[in-house]
Amino acid sequence: MKFNIKVWRQAGPNAKGGFKSYAVDGILPEMSLLEMLDVLNEQLTKQGEEPVAFDSDCREGICGTCGLVVNGMAHGSRLKCTTCELRMRHFEDGATVTIEPFRAKSFPIIKDLVVDRSAFDRIIAAGGYISVNAGSAPDANAVLVPKDIAEKAMDSAACIGCGACVAACPNASASLFVSAKITQFALLPQGQAERERRALRMVEQMDKEGFGNCSNHAECEAACPKGISIGNIATMRREYMRAAARYEERAEAAGAG
Amino acid sequence: MSKPCFVKSTIGRKVIAAISGIALMLFIVVHLGGNLTMLVPDNGATFNAYAHKLHSLGPLLWVARAGLLIFFLGHVITAIGVRLDEKRARPVGYAITASKGGPSKQTWSSRSMLITGLIILLFVPFHIWMFTLNQGADHARIVQHGVEMKDVYLSVVRGFSNPVKAWAYVAVMALLGFHLRHGFWSAFQSLGALSPKCAPVAYTAGLIFALLMAVGFLILPLYILYFGPDPETLRVAMN
Amino acid sequence: MIKVAEEPILNANIPDGPIETKWKTHKANIKLVSPANKRKYTVIVVGTGLAGGSAAASLGELGYNVLNFCIQDTPRRAHSVAAQGGINAAKNYQNDGDSVWRLFYDTVKGGDFRAREANVYRLAEMSANIIDQCAAQGVPFAREYGGTLANRSFGGAQVSRTFYARGQTGQQLLLGCYSSLMRQVDAGRVKLFPRREMLDLVVVDGRARGIVCRNLVTGAIESYAADAVLLATGGYSTVFFLSTNAVNCNVTAAWRCHKRGAFFANPCYTQIHPTCIPLAGASQSKLTLMSESLRNDGRVWVPKNKGDKRPPSQIPEDERDYFLERLYPAFGNLVPRDIASRAAKRMCDTGYGVGNTGYAVYLDFSDAIQRLGRDVVRERYGNLFDMYHEITNESPYETPMRIYPAPHYTMGGLWVDYNLMSTIPGLHVLGEANFSDHGANRLGASALMQGLADGYFVIPYTLGHYLADSGVLKNKVTTDHPAFKEAAAAAAEQTKRLVGARGKKTVREFHWELGRIMWDHVGMSRNAKGLEGAIRDIRALREDFWKNVSVGGSDGDFNKNLEFAGRVADFMELGELMAIDALHRNESCGGHFREEYQTPEGEAMRDDKNFCYVGAWQWSGNASEPVLHKEDLEFDYVHLAQRSYK
């Protein structure tokens, strides 16, 4: 197969970027989009040109490293699919494939298609955890978790942190990412102690990072390689309202701030 | 940690937009109910009586109007704020954007909430001027069942006999329909009221609600324009 | 001829006493750092996978200053994330007779008697605590209706001791560990350094005192000083180019430590996973693993006629060779990983392979579909079938899957003692990067267990002992020390040299060629002639690499080619060591199979008389002349026996 690849090139965070077109040939239908970029990069390296910078690691859809906007869609047109799993047979032979980085103010471009998603780490650091030091855990069966609750928590926990939700959202909102973590812990008995604090702090950090607001387009759910539901966002809002109403008294009663 | 300010948070602002949106939806349901009394073939007697009843509420009417204004402004201000955030959150846009379909609820309606909203915002003062502040040059009044009252019916008939105005109303009401198509379900989602199971129900209900409202409102100008009484002869015949 | 050290210098520091109480006694005897003093120590942790992340989080919880480095853009992406199956623990929740002893026994036997008993026993002891810890962190393990934890039997174990979270156990455990880590970041006790590649270990007065790394975004060579260095940088399967590992997995950090004096143990012990989706073309970047559970219902076969190119549906039943069932009637399609893998390779090497490349065998579900019905098969394997379909565009419901083995895990790694300390004092090695617990072959669902045991429950004790015992606190070192300057200059020089290389071949081409040599001769089946040839070929390729490689770009910004070039340069040296180790080990054991040493039935034949030791290699300054040190292994509890799966 042959393709015309129109790809975003940007030398550095502050450099001016633009599209460049390249022709690639000899692409097999079973190759992934990233393998096609590998072929392009080999070609560019041989020509003494700089290869197109992009992030990837596991190449089986679980690490969340890769993420490109392909023909206007985060991770391309397939549902529940990461860029590394997107096979070229889903494109028409000879077509132009437009590849852009994830775009959001909170995901600044490092180079070409590589973006900095450390905002997600800072949101998790703000409260996306259950405070339990190594060694202080009770027996795992001492806290029962009904099967359906465990399954629901797993649905939310499946997030790979790729940022496609932000990239696909017309508002560049991170609500799906943040809500999946808040929901996972709100469901589990282990997460109850820090439930309010977690919701308040994670949302506060999300807002601080400069992500947009959620207008319920649900494009994030379509873009999510793990199919995480916007039901999580509804839960996050409930959790936040609940926390806003309840947090202060409890914290003061406990003598914490 | 200090407690963050609820109304400044993204979620808080969506909650305000949702609550005010639901209040406004309730309002338009009542408004539509009143409007539809115009379809009673009694040359506006029922409608005028309804209008009179509203006007005779006195201070209560002003409380209702103030409340409505607050909801309206709350809705507009938070919505514009949300939109400004969006612009800040993605300063450089994509060359191509497309929806992936599937579970996506991204539609023209969802993408155009600000535009349809702004048009409605511009429409409202005009609407109030047309039917509340300036009821025709002669401030027509009528006596029904021994009570003298404003002849609101006559001014509506006069207004909608003008094809430009009537069709302009139709257009705005269609846009209102689009606004509600996304707004209805979105309001409940913003309040966290929807589990993944009820979300599709609310989404379909939103479509039905939007259709009912839009059709309900735009029936009236069209009816008056094409089937209604001639305003010049309406009251003459009666007198 | 290889050089063997005359004086045995390796001391594993195994505590005295019966195996059941070794760790307990050890914990009671080792030195402690007082709570008030912990904040005065700085510890570098390289890697944020299950081992590194859990170590960094736990040390942060204890109050140490932790500097945590990773090559990924965030700790949550470390390759532990990709483990599918599960994690073993001797909880005996199923009341089926499991115990610490049994897990210990199975692991020693599974490792084909080439692991250190004391370490394995401790690992089995820790296993239960790990599950407690992870459940408390909110890891959504599979549950029964009553809310207790669910288990499954995995990898042929006779008890149900594997805990799992759908097919994403590694991801969930890593996210649990990552959340604890981020909590310490928030508390200010751990400082994260993502997108940093460790390029050298800094040794001052014989102790590991810091690292030199490259900032993968700015290209800057950065130095960090500390009181101890923990290495948790994973395995080296990507030496084969095509493996199930992530494309950025590499040996560089471990290899540079090796070159600074850390012995590299058992490099030839590599594990091949039998059920992977076969190679489709030369541009493929990695191989995708499918869960081993597929072999529970799928039947493996090849055509009886060589080079039979008919589609599988047109090959009649009596022209099919169900070779695993034929060769191993008792276990059939469920023989252990290494045996299944070798049998498949043998069939393909002798011309019976299927698919375009001839390097694949069929895994057929038509019998299972007939017997169980499509719905049951879908329920059991639906996800895997979908994944296979998405990748190959063939539906396993209609046509047999094609599978082929792929490198998956490396049991070898830097040599460590019972305290997880390498031969360089202060340098501790955790997880897949060390060699200690799996011997010559790792059992399914044991890798996650080992990584977390090392990080959560072993290193918090043994590192404290080192810090308190070594007196590093009285002798603080900063990055102004000449050793840092020297290491940073060397790293910068190599980077400069690589980035300036303008040869004819790309880094990827060299890596591909190296992988080819490694797979053909140092892969799942080896012989002396092939290994000798491989050593020669690797040497030649290495020479060619430094003359002919083309890297390009700048060393002052994000440059993927440059990253890969440095890693491939190290693989070129490691590859030779693997071949040397495989050649010297004149026996077959676990993942190391020498064709000359097999039973008449084609089984691995150990030589316990001559090779019951850990082969730890010392860098001599020349990649072709490593020095062998032996740590004799003693089996006082699990008695040496031949594995048999007939």
Outline the structure in words.
The complex is a heterotrimer of chains A (257), B (239) and C (646). Chain A has 257 residues and is an alpha+beta fold. Chain A contains eight helices and seven strands, in the order E-E-H-E-E-E-E-E-H-H-H-H-H-H-H. Chain A has helices at 33-46, 118-125, 147-157, 164-168, 175-187, 195-208, 219-223, 231-253; strands at 3-9, 18-24, 69-70, 73-74, 96-100, 109-111, 114-115. In chain A, the strands form two sheets. Chain A has a five-stranded mixed sheet. Chain A has a two-stranded antiparallel sheet with strand order 6-7. In chain A, helix 3 runs antiparallel to helix 5 (175-187). Chain A is elongated. With 239 residues, chain B is mainly α. Chain B has a single domain, classed as 3 helical TM bundles of succinate and fumarate reductases. Helix content of chain B is 71%, strand content 3%. Chain B has helices at 10-36, 45-55, 59-89, 108-111, 113-133, 152-160, 163-190, 198-227, 231-238; strands spanning 141-144, 147-150. The longest helix of chain B has 31 residues, at 59-89. The mean pLDDT of chain B is 91. Chain C is an alpha/beta fold and 646 residues long. In chain C, 59% of the residues are buried. The two termini of chain C are 37 Å apart. The longest helix of chain C is centred in the C-terminal third of the chain and has 25 residues, at 560-584. Among the domains of chain C are: 273-408, Alpha-Beta Complex (Flavocytochrome C3, Chain A, domain 1), CATH 3.90.700.10; 500-608, Up-down Bundle (Methane Monooxygenase Hydroxylase, Chain G, domain 1), CATH 1.20.58.100.
